[in-house]
């Protein structure tokens, strides 16, 4: 392409994005020493201390050093608010700044994918992959494995207030759970986390860094891919910008987009693969008309209710006390324990919004702290945050480029609470939260609803409006390049993650999910990368 230098070297595969999925893909494809793999990352290296100390998410999210700083459009369902939409900007991607919660979802999530006409994606197919990826503190069990690259540990800190919330949930009739990752995550318990001895375990740390010494694997960072390079409808490479210069790299095998539910869509649309009317309106030549590229955006909306408490410690007091903070830092430095090892949420609850639900449709993240929003200081009064999210929202949004300029951030519109079902479940989630906090076990701590406030009554319309006021993303965008069977006009990729109508191009990341999983989405994304890498290797072996 005119104006671009050719990147030196010959490559069989180009992987675009060294995030949660891309690190896995690069690892697996470069395991064959005869295959040359180039992985291109738009962000930088993970060489900042707060990307490794678990509590560093407080500083990494909302920081342009580590976050792409996207924002949503104004959301009608959120009463006109626009939300910050964090995405990781270093190797490891969002696994470098996320909640570190190890969560597979429910068996029914994957069986539903199979029922949509996607062979090879049932729970029976994918749960062995989760087990194979595991390096789990429980060791080799029916549900977990050891020796894999994806480290999972128990939390290294307990809080009396969270133990009491757990007891309150059990009083409500929610069963105790020691492990949310058995296929049925109903219950209350502590989340398992992607950490190793008190340090964050990102996809880069688990899958990419250990294999960068391979002579057939090359990582290029701070290189933003503008578009794909086509020969007709065959993807033969990518064009990217690095250090003010333009480069072009070519692949003799496949180009694999692993830039996530936002980034992969931007690249596809700038390359002319997407909704024809949108592309023409922006002056982008249409290479392959795909109505579904950027559509079907799904996310978990969390409703962050805050309760003040008395007579029990929360992180708020420690945060505002210099001596306590000094002791906290010393404890971490010496023993890798204490509040600095905390994931954003420690206690989890999976339950039903109403008795008619066939399986849990609400997930609670309970935190021994409170703040107005990520990036803001903790409150000066003792409080906890009890966030509920609808696990299977029916609202659908979109991601669309605003222009052909790679520096223009895309239009992101999740369309939260756009359906009557989502609004009803949002109201019910507030009711369930209030019932939880009124249980006898918590009475000694005198919990008082601070947000949205006891002045909000039980009327459904009033609760829906309150949900719009307090709702925020839990950072789980998926589905924007969804899988689908042949003949599905909205499907972007087939069940082997090949982009329909384009040769030698796949998408392997969270964007291919047809429906969102019932829980945190990072571990399912790792599984998709494992599955997709296998497809690439199998198809190359079979010459298909």
TrEMBL record:
Residues 393-529 form the Glucose-methanol-choline oxidoreductase C-terminal domain. Residues 11-301 form the Glucose-methanol-choline oxidoreductase N-terminal domain. Keywords: FAD, Flavoprotein. It comes from the Bacteria. Its cofactor is FAD. The keyword 4Fe-4S does not apply. InterPro entries: GMC_OxRdtase, GMC_OxRdtase_N, GMC_OxRtase_C. PANTHER family: CHOLINE DEHYDROGENASE, MITOCHONDRIAL (PTHR11552:SF147), GLUCOSE-METHANOL-CHOLINE GMC OXIDOREDUCTASE (PTHR11552). This is GMC family oxidoreductase N-terminal domain-containing protein.
